[in-house]
Amino acid sequence: RATMKSLRFLSAEAFVSNAEFARKSLNAVAHNLFPLLFKASYLLEQGEVIHDLVENWPLVDFNVGKLLGPTVDYQEDLSQRTCSLCLESCLTGLRDYVLNHSSPYMKRLKVVDLTGIKDVEVQFCECKKTMGRWARTQLLSKLCVELLVYLQQAQCSPGTFEISIDVLINLFVTERNYELVVHALLKKCYCPLKICCVAFRSDNLTLQKFFYIIKLTDPSLLRKLEIVHNVRLEMEHLEILFNSIHFPLLMSLTLPARTFNVQRFTPTDEQMLANIGEKMGEMTQLTELCMSFSILTGRIQKLLSPLKTPLKMLDVSNCLLNHADMAYLANSFHAYHLESLDLSGHDIPELYPSTFFKLLSHSSSVLRSLTLEDCNIQDTHVNMLILGLSPCQKLHEFKFVGNPLSSQALKHLFTFLCELPMLKNVEFPVPRDCYPLGITYPIDDANLCRFDHQKYESIAEELNLILVQANREDVKASTPLFGSYDAALQETNNELGAYLIKSFKETLEKFTTSFNELKL
Predict the structure, then answer these.
(1) Angle between the 267-282 and 235-244 helix axes, to the nearest 10 degrees?
(2) 484 vs 195, 343, 430, CA distance in Å?
(3) Cross-strand pairs, 357
(4) Which of 154, 270, 337, 367 is the most buried (most CB within 10 A)?
(5) Residues spanned by the domain of 20
(6) Are 182 and 208 contacting, i.e. CB atoms less than 8 angstroms apart?
(7) pTM confidence score
């Protein structure tokens, strides 16, 4: 559906569509029209015009998310277009803003905010080439380092060194861009472009490098910390992190798999867990917590009870929670504030059905996203699930892949889901009747794709027809076999794969060495 454009926006498009004319005419353009021209240029992917607009930006702030978001002149949200051409033009234009020889007194820009850029799976830009979070981190760091080198070598006006622009960004650091980002952060105080890290994600980093770079980011400004793949952070390291670094503004924390493992707990470990809970309790802004694939059996209360601010997002998927854990969650003050909840990997119908539905009932007035993947939800549980979901009128997203449900049960469930007014995204399992008889759940990776694809497509069409007949074409229904889209993982999967192969090779070499020593 085409979005309406105002006459102002149509005029802006016409102006920037002739790049040569637009670039020559910028000096005559009123300052308050720059945001309008920027969005029009971004829509038309006029890289040279974008560059010159940013190079001559006349306003105090440059907030990409707001500039590209819905506006009076054009409601379409372009902040999900991570177009490589456009974003590179933005960043090089920012560098040239500093180097531009116009009087420093004309330069008003103080804050650049790149945090509103959203990485999504489907891109609508014409060039189809995206610049993800890792690449944005890489390019900004590179430009800052190059800018410093140029300023040291060239004869610049003294006013250039007085320019100070805070550049707010969500950094994404791996082994491959680590040295460059460290270099940029170390020289931050000398560079006119000041990297201000609002959110930090690290994958494929040694603990030593992670601890070093996290201190350079200025943790006092950090709002989101994600330590995800191949950072071997265990509980004792987390305690050291929290004891040595203060995160006063932290709102969101994601910890890597196996950070906690209560199966091998000692009394010292119990005290360590309590200390970590207390430290998290001091983070008064913390409202989002992801601890998937840790073993937390019987310890959720010890970890979460010190928190003074209610959680809005909780991911405890595959954490082996027991009845006591679920009872604590259902009765805690967090339950009434949870907007996003992930309990995947727990046998909910068998272990704690009534407690789970109590939790669902308490969070129903605010819950927007619910993930129940691989939870052993069967046909006999669907009516109870519908009853539990009925009050969740604000639900936007429901993910339940990996559950042994038949096509008939899915049709019944979809008929109900049409009644949830705000629902936009559903991720459903391959129906059980598409797999061979005798398949066991959870299905291992080797058998995941061994289903009747033709039958699945036919059933998927029927499910979509249910949505269409209920006038719910706004709901996207899909079956992501290997998990939901992860933009960061997609961008760095080659590096991740190489890291895994290297780790496997090192393990194999150690085993071979040990085996040979035994033979001797």
Answers:
(1) 40
(2) 31, 15, 15
(3) none
(4) 367
(5) 7-131
(6) no
(7) 0.92
